Amino acid sequence: MCGKVLLIGAGPGDPGLLTLRALEMIKSADVVVYDRLVSDEIMAMCPEGVELIAVGKCPQSHPVPQDRINEILFEQAQMGRRVARLKGGDPMIFGRGSEEALYLQERGVIVEYAPGITAAQGASCSTGVPLTHRGIATGVQYVTGHRQADKVLDLDWKRLADPDTTLVVYMGVANIGQIAVGLMTEGLPAATPVMAVSKATSAKERRMVTTLGSVAQDSRDEGLKPPTLFIIGQVVSLYAEQPVGELVEQAKAHG
Fold first, then answer.
1. Residues identified as active-site
2. Using 50, 70 and 90 to split pLDDT, how confident is the model at 146?
3. β-bridge pairing 4-9 and 110-114
4. Which region, left, alpha or beta, applies to residue 206 given φ > 0 means left and ψ of -120 to 50 means alpha?
5. pLDDT-derived band of residue 253, with 50, 70 and 90 as boundaries?
6. What is d(CA 160, CA 180) in angstroms, rounded to the nearest whole number?
7. What pLDDT, on a 0 to 100 scale, did the predictor assign at position 255?
């Protein structure tokens, strides 16, 4: 009998942000296949005795290639097991969840979903910086700041350099300088506020507020590491209602 795969979003880290549906799926699993960014607190919610299979990736290090992850999920389902595929954030937002689902569905495996709070939403709530705000930002765009196999980052800079929307960049630490240049080349002012949030909603969350013209140097100075996302736009000016320049100094002072 073929089992099923439960594609679960674990959220950005805080276990309080896990949905009830996600928790129910985790509790019903026979095996949990999990990513590196799933927090220890959420992993502790897995049923006692359930098999745990780590398939996490780090920048420049993919010990379990995506093709093999797909095979693991299929093999486990073929054994008649309920497979919890646990991913940080939301599996359908830069989580490759749809790729895994297509692979499994093409082979007759049932896939069910539990959405998760994505990192942008988590960072917005933990910092109080809205992603949209009347009179400041009429929309929000999510983009990835990294291409598979380190390919050229060929984003549509003209479309992204919209002063009336908020831009959220996932996985952008390595390329934030190139991203800033691309946006400024298309007319987004160097003074545009930027907030970097590392490990959003976790006990290790770090924040840095700067400007588009300074974000590359400030990120290097602060030693920002993944997972870090960048919120770019005038909404950042609402953070604690303080001028951006003062917040840069506060961020540096608090490390």
1. 35, 57, 171
2. confident
3. parallel
4. beta
5. low
6. 11
7. 42
Ranges in the chain annotated CATH 3.30.950.10: 119-254
**pLDDT score for 254:** 45
Superfamily of structural domain 4-114: Tetrapyrrole methylase, N-terminal domain (3.40.1010.10)
- Secondary structure (3-state) at 141: strand
Count Cβ atoms below 10 Å from residue 99 Cβ, excluding itself.
12
Residues 180-193 have a mean pLDDT of 97
- If we measure between CA atoms, which residue out of 87, 103, 114 comes closest to residue 23? 114
> Tokens 């780090």 correspond to what residue?
58
CA distance 60 to 43: 24
> Which residues partner with 6 through β-bridges?
84, 112
Phi first, then psi, for residue 57 (nearest 5°) are -120, 150
DSSP 8-state symbol, 107:
T
pLDDT over 80 (residue 244): no
Cα 224 to the chain's mean position, in Å?
A: 15
Short-list 192, 177, 189, CA closest to 224: 177
Neighbours of 146 (CB within 10 A): 17
Domain 119-254: which CATH class? Answer: alpha beta
